[in-house]
Amino acid sequence: MFNRIHHVAIICSDYAKSKWFYTEVMGLTIIEETYRAARGSYKLDLALANGDQIELFSFPDSPPRPNFPEAQGLRHLAFEVDSVHDVKSYLQSQHIEVEPVRIDELTGKAFTFFTDPDGLPLEIYQK
């Protein structure tokens, strides 16, 4: 019935900063960028290498996200990577704070967390 996740939607507070983060730091490809004048809002469609997509939105006066690690709702967005340690080093070279690498006790795989410009928790997880 459900084949795959088509996209994940993110609302940002600073469109230019978030666009830079997701395209320049994380290397996502721009599919389409749309300015919706009636809403005073941008919609940026981004793709990962495998075709998975993120929709980045900007809305005027959107409320901040409650950012507690165990808050109800979306907990984090995880990206599969070939090497958690290599990606962590790269992110740190881009002045992104990254938590220490941990090992998932259920799978034995490495993972760690960092945040986007709005504090959205992002995870990198070993392939």
Automatic annotation (TrEMBL):
Keywords tagged on the record: Metal-binding
Keyword Metal-binding: yes
Domain VOC: from-to ranges: 4-127
Keyword Metal-binding included in the entry's annotation: yes
SUPFAM superfamilies: Glyoxalase/Bleomycin resistance protein/Dihydroxybiphenyl dioxygenase
A Pfam short name: Glyoxalase
NCBIfam families assigned to the protein according to its UniProt record, in alphabetical order: PRK11478.1 (NF008551)
The protein's name: VOC family protein
Species for this entry: Vibrio olivae
